[in-house]
Amino acid sequence: xxxxxxxxxxxxxxxxxxxxxxxxCDALSQAIANxxxxxxxxxxxxxxxxxxxxxxxSPRGFTLEVLAxxxxxxxxxxxxxDITNANKKKxxxxxxxxxxELSAGAKFLISFSPQSYIAIEYINNNRFKLLLQNRTxxxxxxxxxxxxxxxxxxxLIRKIIRxxxxxxxxxxxxxxxxxEIKKYSNNLKTK
Length: 191
Fold this sequence. Notes:
The protein has 191 residues and is of the alpha+beta class. The chain folds into two domains: 86 residues, no CATH class; 88 residues, no CATH class. 30% of the residues lie in helices and 25% in strands. A hairpin with a 2-residue loop joins strand 8 and strand 9. Helix 2 crosses helix 3 and helix 4 crosses helix 5. The radius of gyration is 25 Å and the shape is elongated. The two termini are 33 Å apart.
């Protein structure tokens, strides 16, 4: 079976959405034949896309070369090299924020579930201004003292300063932990 990334590239070239059914493989087989003047059978495509689970073994080198040509590559190796390089260039999601490593004005959206999140802006000295929140006990403009944010770990807010009054620490994401950390801008739409 092909990797998800390779399937996506083939589907993009095919231009007719996801390949999920036998009839899609029949149409793809014809599209490959029209473009490359080589045939890849629909039964082979069904195996490669996981539609037909029967049949064992890897596809022949010729089949892989034809698929690469269909996706506008000179060879299968060229296509693999391109995918590998593209994956290296992708921005990896943030896993950890350490306050002392941030610059003033840096903004982040921290999610605990699809409906529970906060948007914060770093001020200085482990303090953040709360810009936005949903389904938390916090209020916009609270100043939060946070030393570290880490995915899969609950978020410890050491102090909450609201209207010049210091409130005790709280923990957000007690069950889920932080599910996502990403850079935030005011025009970024939340979930």
